[in-house]
Write a structure and sequence with these properties.
- Two copies of one chain form a homodimer.
- With 496 residues, chain A is an alpha/beta fold.
- Chain A is built from 18 helices and 20 strands.
- In chain A, the strands form five sheets. A seven-stranded mixed β-sheet of chain A has the order 1-7-18-17-14-12-10.
- In chain A, strand 5 and strand 6 form a beta hairpin.
- In chain A, helix 8 packs across helix 9 and helix 10 packs parallel to helix 11.
- Chain A is globular.
- Chain A starts with 11 loop residues before the first strand and ends in a 9-residue tail after the last helix.
- The relative contact order of chain A is 0.15.
- The model of chain A has no long low-confidence stretch (mean pLDDT 97).
């Protein structure tokens, strides 16, 4: 084929009306129950500054027990100021993404301690693996923003954010992610972004250029680095995705409704803290409710409970008027059929539930312990399939093809029809990894399973990788900054 | 766990509002275009009796070219009499299924010439394999009716329907499927059903007890056995699923809109023939539109084009007020990740598109050339996941779990909470084949991939199979009938 199919993988819009598993009164009941939890039971907030800010806004704080209760009026004021839709910026205009509304943003796997591929096996995350994952993320338009990728444990934690920041900002022009590991690291991160994007402090503060995810310590606790991250990111006008990690039966009630009440309450507390810090700060409502295997306590993903929780969470997010973040997750140990069907259950549940951000969209395996390069490529295939399925059906006269039907008589075929010849090169989505060869060809090729094709693809992509053009002076400024900060001793992470 | 989780896999209802890819005016445009195709271009109908019946109803017939055109008035009369919702019956009340409305019926793989499993490899279909597939279908409540399973090529075609009929009716109490391979075979099939179900001819004619699928010979042709099947099943008041096999780029226009127009036109012709034969005969609108790989001409499934076609077909079916049949299909050569994600794309597209019947719901592989026992088990897992996800979320006070949140303090866990202890044994869906063990346990177990677990499961199910209790006198009557008909020479299939 000589022509190239035009793709529409950037700035995605999900055309489907969100699915619902809760009646309107059930949404309102869960919302009211969560408000009641915050008023009556409250949350433990470990960071004194966070307690002080909330107290100043009207929360009731007990500094001995560190318990904070907030009334529904304060929560509602926060929801009134949190924006429903806003843009986030990368290094070039094509990388601008919209959070909220009918927009969908895909971010690859983030956070695993291990990385794996079929050539080198399962191993501890390194900065080299992190950089390769940046190259993959940059190479596929269907991945819109970065994520923390794999944890590069060969780099000292005090300097790790320089390496991961540089990799995100120099190997890619997509919006970066930084962990909230204390004010010093966050300040470094913001400065690195400003240097590479060429932004003044005022320009940076006026729009989102970077984001983080804050997982509450379910049940009902917000630890020091997490509360600090909400404060620092909100203050800078950067995006915080507040995502309680509410596994039903473990860190949340065993009932789906109970887990959702707790998720909602914890998310509302994080969102409220952010708006208290800076009214109008961009925030995302994160849902991560799933269940555990009650035999072992192990987390399960892509379950029917996960599907319902994702759809319900979307309803709750729309109820409070915020963008909704969900995830493409599975609990399989290999990029096999289970990893695919659990991932698809999660992704379809999330996207039919109106998710605006799909995290871990490519590469997550083993319940999040591993970033798998093969799973990454397999997921890119399914993400592109979603992106294509989101495009409208053209019913113009030429596409209705009545002339072609007249040309091709009963019992004939369309392979050589004029209508086909005009369109065949670009008519259909061209897969990345799916193998459509027949049985004979497949046997001849050595009976490759999907993961084997995926190995070939990630190797090709990495071999052919070209970083985006980035102003050399800015990269130099970044490197000077990193050198100076490294000399100063870096920024050890803040812990609990 | 001692308690058993109550399941709701029979008489399934899909609670989701069907998704849409076409605006209302696009649905009407495709419908009108299809009516125009039937009026202006028509279809070739190879069976003289079918042409005669259509002519008597007002169609314009040219017996030389065998071309039949029908005007929109005749089509509309047929749509006025075809029922929107009706029940189909198995051997016991629990096997009653409803076609149409919000009801969903799952039928396993049907039609492949080959069968495969990890122990015996890929081989030609046999009656033994057919019988094993009946046992599997009977063993899972989430499979509601039968399908033609694998083609048992070790049985002479003139006697094959006796063996497949007996297997369906004696190893199972679910609604059987029979191919439309000529009036003699169909008459035999109906008699076998009556004998085992203990029905008079009048009782049988009053309600659906058996079904068939008619694939038009796209483009725009209806061959002899297919037209005959529509006539014979409709006359007997039994179900016909009219399903054009419209692969865009091969047997249908390369454009999605064009393929849908052709699918709709061909389906309307089949439906019209059925209603001309017997007003009110139960019919299902089948959609099978997918695309081909334009490099090789091979059919592709689970593509974005398939997803959109499935959703659009649901809209077209609801537009004409008929139950909608779609399929769980993939083009992979192995029960690997590709087979799973393509299957999930197909199934989610179908079910979000409001499919009332999901054919090939379990076991289809290799674009329909193979019935895979491993894929069968993997699909049962996903079907059960759908069935569970279809159940409502309980938001009663006890499920909201506020007391449990009070009991479990911040930073604690719910494993030992009273609320958890009361519910843990039955709280969550218990998977058939998903492996949630951690990496260490998984390595210790020999790193099994999903297909290996599936092998274990189908063997267990077959080993423990018990046929349903069926009146011995009825089975004897069936066997007497088969013996007599065999002696008479059976019923050679009708061909084109």
């Amino acid at each position: 084929m000589t022509e190239t199919r035009p793709t529409h993988y950037q700035q995605l819009v999900n055309p489907f009306v969100p699915a619902e598993v809760l009646a309107a009164e059930q949404v309102e009941l869960i919302h009211r129950s969560a408000l009641g939890v915050l008023e009556d039971l409250g949350m433990r907030v470990l960071l004194p500054e966070a307690r002080r800010l909330l107290a100043e806004a009207g929360a009731v704080v007990d500094d001995d027990s560190m318990m904070v209760t907030v009334d529904r009026g304060l929560v509602q004021s926060a929801l009134d100021t949190a924006p429903a839709v806003y843009d986030g910026y990368g290094g070039v205009p094509e990388r601008t993404v919209t959070f909220g509304g009918e927009h969908v943003v895909f971010a690859p796997v983030g956070g695993p301690p291990y990385v794996s591929d079929r050539e080198r096996g399962r191993r501890t995350g390194t900065i080299e693996a992190f950089e390769d994952l940046m190259r993959l993320a940059q190479s596929f338009d269907v991945l819109h923003i970065h994520s923390p990728s794999v944890e590069p444990q060969d780099v000292d934690p005090a300097f790790r954010h320089y390496r991961t920041g540089r990799a995100q900002l120099v190997l890619s022009d997509k919006m970066p992610f930084f962990f909230g590991r204390g004010p010093a690291q966050i300040a470094d991160a913001f400065e690195m972004v400003r240097l590479v994007r060429g932004l003044t402090e005022e320009e940076f503060a006026a729009n989102p250029y970077v984001y983080t995810v804050v997982n509450t310590n379910s049940p009902r606790q917000l630890d020091v680095p997490m509360a600090q991250a909400i404060i620092d990111f909100a203050r800078a006008g950067q995006i915080v995705m507040v995502t309680p990690f509410t596994l039903a039966g473990a860190m949340a009630p065993v009932s789906l409704a109970g887990a959702l009440v707790q998720q909602h309450a914890e998310a509302l507390m994080g969102i409220t803290l952010g708006q208290v810090v800076r009214s109008g700060a961009p925030v995302v409502y994160g849902g991560f409710t799933s269940n555990v295997d009650m035999r072992s306590g192990a987390p399960a993903f892509g379950t029917p409970e996960y599907v319902k929780a994702a759809i319900a969470s979307g309803q709750l997010a729309r109820h409070i008027g915020l963008p909704f973040r969900s995830s493409n997750v599975n609990a399989s140990n290999a990029p096999d059929a289970q990893s695919a069907y659990e991932s698809m259950m999660s992704s379809w549940g999330a996207l039919m539930g109106g998710a605006n951000v799909l995290m871990h969209a490519a590469g997550w395996l083993e319940g999040g312990l591993v970033a798998s390069l093969e799973k990454y490529i397999i997921d890119v295939e399914t993400l592109q399939t979603f992106a294509e399925a989101f495009q409208p059906v053209d019913t113009s006269e030429a596409e209705l093809a009545i002339d072609a039907m007249q040309e091709v008589g009963p019992g004939g075929h369309y392979f050589g029809a004029a209508h086909t010849m005009e369109r065949y090169a670009t008519a259909f989505y061209d897969p990345v990894v799916s193998d459509w060869s027949n049985h004979g060809q497949w046997i001849e090729a050595g009976s490759p399973i999907t993961a084997e094709h995926a190995t070939r693809v990630w190797k090709q992509v990495l071999d052919g990788f070209e970083p985006p053009p980035i102003d050399a002076a800015r990269v130099e400024a970044l490197d000077d900054f990193i050198a100076r900060r490294t000399e100063e001793g870096g920024a050890p992470p803040l812990t609990t």
